Amino acid sequence: MRILNIILVLFLFSLTTTATIRYVSKSGSSTPPFTSWETASDSIQKCINVCFAGDTIVVSNGLYKETFKVTIPLTLIGSGADSCIIDATGIGSYFSIRVEESFRIRGFTFKKDGSSASIFSIYSLQNFIEDCIFESTSLPSIGGMVSSISIKNCIFRNCTGNVYLTLLSPLKTGIIENCISISGKDYFSDFRLEFGHQTIRNNIIIHNSSTVDANIGIFSDMPSTVYIHNNLVAGSIEGIVLTGGYSFIDSGLICNNLVGYKKYDPNFYWAGILGNANIKMINNIVYNHNTGLYIPTGVTPPITYEGGYNMLWNNVNDTYNCQLKETDMVADPMFVNDTVPSWNMSYDFHLQKYSPGIDSGDPSILDIDGTRSDIGLYGGPYGEEYKYVDIAPRKPYGIVPSINGKDIAIKWRKNSESDTSHYIIYRDTLADFTPDSVLICKIQKDTLFTDVFPEGLAKVYYRIQCVDKQGNKGDASDVISFVLSDGGEYKSEDNYDYHLYQNYPNPFNPLTKIGYQLKERGKVKIMVYDIKGELIRQVLNEEKEAGYYEAEFDGSVLSSGIYLCRIEIINGKGIPVYMNMRKMVLIK
Question: In whole angstroms, what is the distance from residue 226 CA to residue 50 CA?
Fold first, then answer.
């Protein structure tokens, strides 16, 4: 056996010694065969033309305005994606690189424009693309038919498409790992693989389009096996879609993904995770989306929901055509920084201490520290170990004050954090008061507070604060005021029969909620204007019954600044009964 190993090592060494390293640089003499920096080629294609199978091309920093074609097995190494740039804008009508043989490539930025332009057009065997950046292409940056493909540590910026590859047979493999896709353009899918053994894990996909005709984040089509792990998919109209029916799939798992931040229309069941196969969906969080878990109808034989231990929260619909299992939960995940994902990466989806998702995943799956898996983005064997942070509760919101004679009532929305304990209500005679223990009026668990207007006072003010089970106090609410009018009538300082509340959070980045109240049924219009008074967006225009409501506003595509939120309410007789406007501050 030892002799065989020695023979194998010598054979491999002989293969490596026959390969040649060639160089490309703008400062070389461009003298073939380009085997030193001094004689380096000034063009990548020129260097490819003199190569033999197995050669390696090293490219120095610089801007290379060209397209090229690879027809033999090669390795291309750039000196760094930040400074080694292949720019094919305005050159060629279709591709920047056409690959017809096995290749490895890393360390470049690729740019391409045009309505029918792609960066990689691949029709070859084994391919490895690592540590590259792709910018502003129209067709998928990487597209074609391959035997196998490995795409790792790449960044896709503002591309209309990213990866759309067909594996040539059910036995071939494709992996997309640790990549980032950020775009505001509309297109079909970020990462799409067809057939074969597919692995898509630890990727970040953020789509910031302001329109509803957005993309699918991850599209797995007719795989033999599929493993979709620990991906963040935000802003896609459909997050993770698996199609092809279970007859194609031997095994697979959709596990520990976070999908969310794309509400659309309650009459359409756009999917957070769509499983068009009897494949397990486990330990995922679908949050603030149109539909959580989606199982298609009309499939023969019928498809059932396999899996469990998923968390759904704040979706228009938690499920479509499937029933949640006992191990699933509808609960606030309690993220550290629950901010809509955007280009500045200001969000933080690690779980807070006391999140219901901690150690609540499938018990057969372990985190990397050996404990039972967490639900969500950082759980499972491909997640990460981190310290859980205990964060104070959110500020109380959805506050609705009312008064009847001298009897005061204040209602608000219950905090959704699982470790919420109680509320402190403060009272003072000054409008700008700071909550203090001497000003405590009442401590209670309920979200309805009642009081009597104090004798001898013309004004009284309240603030509410949430406290968790560890004693952490959140920010106090905005001031709630009641007055005694000159006519001797006790009333809210504002008319709360109809009301536009201050948006929360405010300032916001980029998602905020606008609360409003109706005394009776009416048509509600909510518009957002810029500071110059130009209409930015109509947020709402529909009939509502009496009660308190919230509308969501997404400022992903807006610049930082002050915006104006205006409400108009028209009653059933067509008469305007309420109008108001508040300032909102967007900070990115």
Answer: 40
Distance CA 522, CA 570 (A): 5
**pLDDT recorded at residue 345:** 73
Closest by alpha carbon to 393, among 452, 477, 453, 495? 477
Tell me, what DSSP letter sits at residue 317?
A: E
Structure tokens at 5: 């190993």
Share above pLDDT 70 across residues of the chain, in percent, rounded to a whole number: 91
Average pLDDT score over the chain: 87
| pLDDT of 33 above 90 | yes
Cis peptide before 393 (omega within 30 of 0): no
Whether pLDDT at 429 is above 90: yes
In eight-state DSSP terms, residue 434 is P
Of the options 2.60.40.10, 3.40.50.720, 3.40.1350.10, 3.10.450.50, the CATH number for the domain spanning 400-492: 2.60.40.10
Higher pLDDT, 229 or 9: 229
The separation between CA 446 and the C-alpha centre of its own chain, rounded to angstroms, equals 34
Annotated domain spans of the chain: 400-492, 499-586
561-571 sheet: strands from edge to edge: 535-544, 522-530, 561-571, 576-586
3-state helix, strand, coil in the chain (%, to 5): 5, 45, 50
| Residue 536: strand, helix, or coil | strand
Name which of 177-191, 440-454, 467-481 the model is least confident about: 177-191
Contact between 397 and 515 (Cβ < 8 Å): yes
SS3 of 77, please?
strand
Token readout for 9 is 């090592």
Partners of residue 232 on adjacent β-strands: 204, 258
Distance CA 510, CA 382 (A): 29
Residue 267 carries which side chain, given as an amino acid letter? Answer: N
Q: CA 266 from chain center: how many Å?
A: 20
Q: Decide whether 400-492 matches 499-586 in CATH topology.
A: yes
- Measured distance CA(56)–CA(38) in Å, rounded: 17
Confidence band (pLDDT; 50, 70, 90) for 185?
Answer: low
- The CATH number corresponding to 499-586 among 3.40.190.10, 3.40.50.10860, 2.60.40.2550, 3.20.20.80 equals 2.60.40.2550
In angstroms, what is the C-alpha Rg of the chain? 29
pLDDT, tens digit, 9 for 90 and up, residues 76-114: 999 999 899 998 888 866 677 889 889 999 999 998 876
In this structure, are residues 271 and 294 in contact, taking their beta carbons and an 8 Å threshold? yes
Q: Which of 380, 374, 345 is nearest to 357 (CA)?
A: 374
| Residue 330 to residue 191: CA distance in whole angstroms | 28
CA–CA distance, 53 with 23 (Å, rounded to integer): 16
Classify the C-alpha dihedral 554-559-564-566 as positive or negative: negative
At residue 4, the pLDDT reads: 38
| Maximum average pLDDT range among 34-43, 249-258, 263-272 | 34-43
- Three-state secondary structure call for residue 338: coil
pTM for the complete prediction? 0.83
DSSP 392-405: PPPPP---EEEEET
For the record, the structure tokens of 430 come out as 């000054």
